Amino acid sequence: MAPSTQKHAKQAPLQLPGGFTVVPVQFSQSSTAQHYLYVKEHRVRAEGSSSRPLDRTLFVLNVPPYCSEQCVSALFSDCGAVESVELRERPGPQEHTEPELSQYFRTPRREGFSVAYVVFKKASSVAAAKKLSPATPLVLSTEQQPIRTGIQKWADQYSAALVDTRQLQAAVDAYMLEHDRRKEEAAQREAEAEGADGEGWVKVSRRGHTASRPHSEPANHRALEREKRKRARKELMNFYTWQHRETQREHIAELRRKFEEDKQRIAVLRAQRKFRPY
Fold it and tell me: Nearest Cα to 42, choosing from 154, 145, 119?
């Protein structure tokens, strides 16, 4: 956006620790209060990506809540052509989320001061943004691109919240079609992954896809070996089951024998009692 019409002597950029440069801004031409942005070149290699090139990205702190991506883009347009602007609540790597299928299913952005990643088309624009004079504040709201606040902003938000039911139904239908398509693709990938297990077995999926069984000699040999091991495990399991049952039978018989002996011993003791009070 165009700088204010105030006359100031040109000053050198104000540098802060950490490599930040102070960029003063004001809301409108008639504003007397100033706000300060802090900018520096984006040099975090761990976050370097195609959307945040290290040589063409400007990192901006203290962006006001009423500034949108369009406002930030217009603010630094005098430094060079802006390719993209990304506003975030806090600095950090990009979060790769699924693309939004409709404007009605977006998560509202939190209102508050934020940070911005401004990507220019040329690397020289980043240097130009770092050389902005602190004596000439940039203007956020102009006649060409005004920023609505207060009642005007709330009225616009209310009007934007009123949607046509037919448009909303069309958006819901498109969302569900895309959802069903993704589910079908995931199911198809899962079915393809459930093919032959590499050991000669044939797997039949719910979609009816079958994998051919190899007829090579090593595959037949491995199949016979697996069958032998399975049969041996089954016989061993049956033996352990029979042994466990026999052990239980012997234990129950021993308990019954001891019970009968205890009954006879108690009967003898009762018969030998000498003290009879009645």
Answer: 119
